[in-house]
Amino acid sequence: MQTFSLRGKTILVTGGSSGIGRQTAATLANLGGRLAVNGRNEVRLAETMAVLTGAEHYAVSFDLNNTQQLPAFVESLPELNGVAHCAGIWKPCPVKFMKEQQLQALLQTNFIAPALLTAELLRQKKLMSGSSVVFVSSVAAQHPYKGGGAYAASKAALEAFSKTLALEYAHKKIRSNCVAPAMVKTPIFDDTQNTVSEQYMQAHEAAYPLRVGQPEDVAYAIAYLLSDASGWITGSVMRLDGGLTVGS
Length: 248
Fold this sequence. Notes:
alpha/beta; seven-stranded parallel sheet
């Protein structure tokens, strides 16, 4: 049973071609939202569009790291009631072996791209009064792990940016929040399985008092923060971890 609705809201979803972004698009569509779904891979983006309920959605294929073309991309968008920043990458690397190129790649996709997109949306007045912006951070921002220095740093920067946005635009009733998931079974989960030992993965999964997350767990949290039901929430970070960090 739906306890809140997104009917009448136009929402941009980035990273919509797979994983959390695809599930978020599907969930928001089920709740009545009208979506502009962004992704870089046109084939996978078309696969996402095929599973959406409703007929007013459209795909916007664009690489958000192409900052020179960002103003033109934003100009093509309608006025928005919300943004779900789901695009992101994950690449583990111990500090000792970290190179500038790896650090720049993570920061560019996970922090700089969503920050500049948000700034451009504000400059072009695409975010209507009462809008809600949701960034997908990670529990790693506050609970780092070995090999995750660059990733955790990019997500911590995103959380600080979101809180600043919340302060600067509260007078226009524009809210900004983050969701911070722990391990979620997405293509990144599959990449992790190929990177670490089976014993490590089993031990990590066993550390979750409830269970490892599913994309819909994150999507429903995003939907809540985009809805009017969360109208008194801004500048927050919603931890989604199945109890992993309880007591830590």
